[in-house]
Specification:
Helix content: over 70%
Mean pLDDT: 82
Order of helices and strands: HHHH
Radius of gyration: 20 Å
Low-confidence stretches: none
Structural class: mainly alpha
Length: about 140
Amino acid sequence: MKSGSQLFLSSMVFGFVIALIYGLSTHEPIGIFLLGLMGIGMLIIFGFLRMRERQFTLLSDDRDAFVSQEAGQTIETFASRSPWPFVIAVGVVLLLVPLIYVPAFSLVGLAIILYALYAFMQEIMPRRAMLSDKRGREDS
Protein backbone atom coordinates (compact mmCIF):
# COMPACT_ATOMS: atom_id res chain seq x y z
CA MET A 1 0.00 0.00 0.00
CA LYS A 2 2.95 2.29 0.33
CA SER A 3 3.30 2.67 -3.41
CA GLY A 4 -0.46 3.29 -3.70
CA SER A 5 -0.39 6.06 -1.12
CA GLN A 6 2.61 7.63 -2.85
CA LEU A 7 0.68 7.63 -6.11
CA PHE A 8 -2.25 9.48 -4.55
CA LEU A 9 0.08 11.87 -2.71
CA SER A 10 1.74 12.85 -5.97
CA SER A 11 -1.67 13.19 -7.66
CA MET A 12 -2.85 15.43 -4.81
CA VAL A 13 0.19 17.68 -5.13
CA PHE A 14 -0.32 17.79 -8.90
CA GLY A 15 -3.98 18.79 -8.51
CA PHE A 16 -3.19 21.61 -6.07
CA VAL A 17 -0.22 22.92 -8.08
CA ILE A 18 -2.21 22.92 -11.33
CA ALA A 19 -5.13 24.65 -9.55
CA LEU A 20 -2.73 27.33 -8.31
CA ILE A 21 -1.15 27.84 -11.74
CA TYR A 22 -4.57 27.83 -13.41
CA GLY A 23 -5.88 30.34 -10.89
CA LEU A 24 -2.95 32.69 -11.30
CA SER A 25 -3.13 32.58 -15.07
CA THR A 26 -6.88 32.65 -15.76
CA HIS A 27 -8.66 33.84 -12.58
CA GLU A 28 -11.57 31.60 -13.55
CA PRO A 29 -13.29 30.27 -10.38
CA ILE A 30 -14.96 27.14 -11.79
CA GLY A 31 -11.72 25.65 -13.11
CA ILE A 32 -9.89 26.49 -9.89
CA PHE A 33 -12.70 24.87 -7.90
CA LEU A 34 -12.67 21.66 -9.97
CA LEU A 35 -8.88 21.30 -9.95
CA GLY A 36 -8.83 21.97 -6.22
CA LEU A 37 -11.59 19.40 -5.79
CA MET A 38 -9.39 16.89 -7.60
CA GLY A 39 -6.62 17.60 -5.10
CA ILE A 40 -9.04 17.25 -2.17
CA GLY A 41 -10.28 13.90 -3.53
CA MET A 42 -6.72 12.63 -3.80
CA LEU A 43 -6.05 13.91 -0.26
CA ILE A 44 -9.01 11.90 1.09
CA ILE A 45 -7.85 8.71 -0.64
CA PHE A 46 -4.26 9.31 0.51
CA GLY A 47 -5.42 9.76 4.11
CA PHE A 48 -7.46 6.57 3.97
CA LEU A 49 -4.55 4.58 2.58
CA ARG A 50 -2.17 5.96 5.22
CA MET A 51 -4.57 4.88 7.97
CA ARG A 52 -4.84 1.39 6.47
CA GLU A 53 -1.04 1.11 6.11
CA ARG A 54 -0.71 1.29 9.86
CA GLN A 55 -3.14 -1.58 10.33
CA PHE A 56 -1.91 -3.96 7.64
CA THR A 57 1.36 -5.00 6.12
CA LEU A 58 1.06 -6.21 2.56
CA LEU A 59 3.44 -8.63 0.95
CA SER A 60 3.81 -6.22 -1.97
CA ASP A 61 5.49 -3.74 0.41
CA ASP A 62 8.31 -6.23 1.13
CA ARG A 63 10.98 -6.09 -1.58
CA ASP A 64 12.35 -9.54 -0.67
CA ALA A 65 8.97 -11.33 -0.74
CA PHE A 66 8.02 -14.09 -3.14
CA VAL A 67 4.64 -14.48 -4.84
CA SER A 68 4.41 -18.05 -3.52
CA GLN A 69 4.15 -16.69 0.03
CA GLU A 70 0.65 -15.40 -0.76
CA ALA A 71 -0.59 -18.70 -2.20
CA GLY A 72 -3.91 -19.83 -0.78
CA GLN A 73 -4.97 -16.43 0.57
CA THR A 74 -8.63 -15.47 0.28
CA ILE A 75 -9.09 -12.40 -1.90
CA GLU A 76 -12.25 -10.40 -1.24
CA THR A 77 -13.99 -8.61 -4.09
CA PHE A 78 -17.09 -6.50 -4.52
CA ALA A 79 -20.20 -8.01 -6.01
CA SER A 80 -19.68 -7.68 -9.75
CA ARG A 81 -23.39 -7.42 -10.54
CA SER A 82 -24.14 -4.70 -8.02
CA PRO A 83 -25.69 -1.50 -9.40
CA TRP A 84 -24.66 0.58 -6.38
CA PRO A 85 -21.18 1.73 -7.53
CA PHE A 86 -22.81 3.18 -10.66
CA VAL A 87 -25.55 4.83 -8.58
CA ILE A 88 -22.89 6.34 -6.29
CA ALA A 89 -21.07 7.73 -9.34
CA VAL A 90 -24.31 9.28 -10.64
CA GLY A 91 -24.89 10.74 -7.19
CA VAL A 92 -21.42 12.30 -7.18
CA VAL A 93 -22.13 13.91 -10.55
CA LEU A 94 -25.47 15.20 -9.26
CA LEU A 95 -23.72 16.52 -6.16
CA LEU A 96 -20.88 18.35 -7.93
CA VAL A 97 -22.38 19.73 -11.14
CA PRO A 98 -25.16 21.68 -9.38
CA LEU A 99 -22.54 23.27 -7.10
CA ILE A 100 -21.51 25.33 -10.11
CA TYR A 101 -24.98 26.32 -11.31
CA VAL A 102 -27.64 25.87 -8.60
CA PRO A 103 -26.08 24.75 -5.29
CA ALA A 104 -29.44 23.84 -3.72
CA PHE A 105 -29.85 20.95 -6.17
CA SER A 106 -26.71 19.34 -4.75
CA LEU A 107 -28.87 17.99 -1.93
CA VAL A 108 -30.43 15.56 -4.41
CA GLY A 109 -27.00 14.18 -5.25
CA LEU A 110 -26.09 13.95 -1.56
CA ALA A 111 -29.29 12.02 -0.83
CA ILE A 112 -28.60 9.60 -3.69
CA ILE A 113 -25.02 9.04 -2.48
CA LEU A 114 -26.08 8.38 1.11
CA TYR A 115 -28.84 5.96 0.08
CA ALA A 116 -26.59 4.12 -2.39
CA LEU A 117 -23.78 3.82 0.18
CA TYR A 118 -26.23 2.42 2.73
CA ALA A 119 -27.64 -0.10 0.24
CA PHE A 120 -24.17 -1.08 -0.97
CA MET A 121 -22.95 -1.69 2.58
CA GLN A 122 -26.04 -3.80 3.28
CA GLU A 123 -25.19 -5.86 0.22
CA ILE A 124 -21.49 -6.24 1.13
CA MET A 125 -21.70 -6.83 4.90
CA PRO A 126 -23.41 -10.26 4.84
CA ARG A 127 -20.67 -11.51 2.48
CA ARG A 128 -17.94 -10.31 4.87
CA ALA A 129 -19.66 -12.02 7.80
CA MET A 130 -19.81 -15.30 5.85
CA LEU A 131 -16.13 -15.01 4.88
CA SER A 132 -15.05 -14.33 8.48
CA ASP A 133 -17.13 -17.31 9.69
CA LYS A 134 -15.49 -19.47 7.05
CA ARG A 135 -12.01 -18.36 8.12
CA GLY A 136 -12.84 -19.00 11.79
CA ARG A 137 -13.87 -22.58 11.00
CA GLU A 138 -10.73 -23.18 8.92
CA ASP A 139 -8.46 -21.95 11.73
CA SER A 140 -9.96 -24.29 14.35
